[in-house]
Specification:
Radius of gyration: 21 Å
Bound molecules: pyridoxal-5'-phosphate
Helix content: 25-40%
Structural class: alpha/beta
Strand content: 15-25%
CATH superfamily of the domain at 69-295: Type I PLP-dependent aspartate aminotransferase-like (Major domain)
Length: 391
């Protein structure tokens, strides 16, 4: 009889190189099909921020699945406005549009910027080198990484690359056709690059001076990952609009973009839509996520633990020549190696720890934001073991 892995190899398009079959998750742990237990500090790449199968989220999904799963956005559902209010309250007080993924949220963000610019003769969007915004055609055009763009051209025009971290370069690129600057304030896929607060604050200033939009991609950084609802709070800068997804549903697919009320008229009736965006089921899951972050004081927890975690990871920089530096903030952290991270990640998996690569040589260490000190310590210990095996 063929195994699941045989089916994977035979029937799926080979876009992923996965070969570890995971069958169960609980809190910070997952189990593979052979019953081996792993500490999951990949968290679905900052998706399962509350750990796997959080009881409150599971209950919300179960109850809503038995009540009303989907109605089209031609009707109002009971959960979507409540979730929109929460996201608005936590962010810039703006208005929300619901989508299903990060790329789709960014498509909406880009469409918002284009529509805003259409009455001003502005269509260009400045995006950052090493940034990542998704795999759809427009979000790919905004992603300035040659290897993942290759073969998909021609991509939509008007996305202008700028080096991350250089205000002067962005300033020099703004012209009368520029509509927006789009940035992940902390680059996730690009290798956990985090700039000075001053850089993001300067970007806000130059966008205001030029009369253009500042857009944040918070898909990876939001909902506690960096110790705040949004990395915007860390940088103390409010964007004109931002995209979110990943951790919002703790694994249940949902994305959104949030637009400052100043621009609430840009996308009017029929200007944008989504069949599945904001279903009662997705919104119930997300409401449970946000309530849990509040009730369990998880933003505060990450802020309290982050210096300790940073120190633990910095000890590894001291201990291993192959570890060049610590990267990140909050629980959005990792290590930059002097070599590609593949070997260390494989060794960690063997030891029972799941961690993920970023950029060319970074290991991301993304615990759930409610991971206990014991779990965090266990993760560091396993990472240390993996590094001992790295040449
Ligand atoms: C910053 C950022 N934006 C967008 C995306 C795309 O999200 P999705 O895979 O849900 O389309 C990702 C995914 O890793 C991301 O990290």
């Amino acid at each position: 009889m063929q195994s699941i892995l045989d089916y994977q190899a035979e029937y799926l398009l080979p876009t992923y190189a996965a070969n570890l079959l995971l069958t169960k998750g609980e809190g910070a742990y997952v189990w593979d099909s052979k019953g081996k237990k792993y500490l999951d500090f990949s968290t679905g790449i900052s998706v399962c921020n509350l750990g796997h199968c959080h009881p409150k989220v599971t209950k919300a999904i179960q109850e809503q699945a038995a009540t009303l799963v989907h109605v089209s956005n031609l009707y109002v559902n009971e959960k979507q406005p409540l979730l929109a209010k929460k996201l608005s309250d936590y962010s810039n007080g703006g208005r929300v549009f619901f989508a299903n993924s990060g790329a789709e949220a960014n498509e909406g963000l880009i469409k918002f910027a284009r529509k805003w610019g259409s009455t001003r003769g502005r269509h260009k969007i400045i995006t950052m080198q090493n940034g990542f915004h998704g795999r759809t055609i427009a979000s790919l055009a905004a992603t300035q990484k040659a290897s993942i763009r290759k073969g998909f051209g021609p991509l939509p025009e008007g996305f202008i690359p700028a080096p991350y971290g250089h205000v002067g370069c962005v300033k020099g690129l703004i012209d009368e056709e520029t509509a927006a600057v789009l940035i992940e304030p902390i680059q996730g896929e690009g290798g956990l690059a985090i700039s000075d607060k001053a850089y993001i604050q300067e970007l806000r200033k130059i966008c205001d001076e030029a009369g253009i939009l500042l857009l944040f991609d918070e898909v990876q950084s939001a909902f506690g990952r960096c110790g705040y609802w949004f990395s915007a709070d860390y940088f103390e800068v409010q964007p004109d609009a931002c995209s979110v997804a990943k951790a919002l549903g703790n694994g249940f697919p949902i994305g959104a973009f949030i637009v400052d009320r100043k621009w609430e008229d840009v996308l009017g009736v029929s200007s944008h839509g989504s069949t599945f965006g904001g279903t009662p089921l997705a919104c119930s899951a997300a409401l449970a996520v946000l309530e849990t972050i509040e009730e369990e004081n998880l933003l505060q927890y990450v802020q309290e633990k982050q210096d300790w975690l940073k120190q633990e990871l910095e000890n590894l920089v001291e201990e291993f020549a192959v570890v060049e530096s610590f990267r990140g903030t909050g629980f959005m952290v990792g290590l930059k190696l002097t070599v590609p991270p593949t070997e260390t990640i494989k060794a960690a998996e063997k030891e029972g720890l799941l961690v993920i690569p970023a950029g060319n040589n970074v290991i991301r260490f993304y615990p759930p934001i409610n991971a206990t000190e014991q779990e965090l310590t266990a993760g560091i210990k396993l990472l240390r073991k993996a590094l001992e095996q790295t040449k």
